[in-house]
Amino acid sequence: MKEPLLFRVCRNLLILSCAFWLAACASGPKVRSDLAPDANLANYQTFGFMQQLATDRSGYTSLVTQHLKAAVTAEMTARGYRYSDQDPQLLVNFNSNVEQRADIRTTTTAATPYYGYYHYRRGFYSPFPYYQQEIETVRYKVGTVNIDVIDAARKQLVWEGIAEGVLNKQDIEQPREAMARVVNQIFVQYPVARRL
């Protein structure tokens, strides 16, 4: 039996809207940052990492910590800071989190008419269309990365950057590259420009 035209149009609109939604998600994480009002990050020369990083709650250095340290070190040195284990002026801390989320989406579609008693109409004209609601649950993973930059002498947060976005299969399969990409996107908002 051939599908009614209205049903095909609704189905194609649903497919198109899903494609636009997926394209929007693929555009990258939402990044935001904040700077302490009295901070001038160009005045600092050295940086280091907190002794106990938020990603190392288990008492050992995780792979997430190693990936984030490498990415942050690359961004900080590109901005002219020098890494130091001995009394750095800036301390960096970071955290990451992955959580499962779900969206429930409802769409209204035209249902294929049931002719029943009205079988004599079949092929000539249709009864009034009726609509049904389709409910779909979409599950996905969302990753969040926070980077804190602290004035070591004052023990005060001077800058923070946060990225939150939907994780795709490639991010999960290649976490080192994904973390480097996210850290780079966060540091685009850092108030000291990269030095060439």
For the sheet with most strands, the description reads: 6 strands, mixed
| Number of separate helices | 4
- How far from one another are the termini? 66 Å
Strand content: 25-35%
CATH topology: Double Stranded RNA Binding Domain
Number of domains: 1
**Mean residue pLDDT:** 78
Number of strands: 6
- Quickly give the structural class: alpha/beta
Low-confidence stretches: 6-25
**Gyration radius from CA atoms, angstroms:** 26 Å
Task: Identify the strand order in the major beta sheet.
Answer: 1-6-5-4-2-3
Residue share in helix: 25-40%
| Assigned CATH architecture | 2-Layer Sandwich
- The gross shape turns out to be elongated
H/E topology pattern: HEEHEEEEHH
For the record, the CATH class is Alpha Beta
Domain DUF4136: 31-191
Protein name: Lipoprotein
Keywords: Lipoprotein, Signal
Signal peptide: 1-26
Protein described:
By secondary structure, the chain is α/β, with parallel strands linked by helices. It has a single domain, classed as Double Stranded RNA Binding Domain (2-Layer Sandwich), CATH 3.30.160.670. Helix content is 28%, strand content 33%. The protein has helices at 5-25, 63-78, 169-173, 175-187; strands at residues 30-35, 46-49, 82-83, 90-110, 131-151, 156-166. The longest helix is centred in the first third of the chain and has 21 residues, at 5-25. The radius of gyration is 26 Å and the shape is elongated. Pfam families: DUF4136. Residues 31-191 form the DUF4136 domain. It comes from Alishewanella longhuensis. This is Lipoprotein.
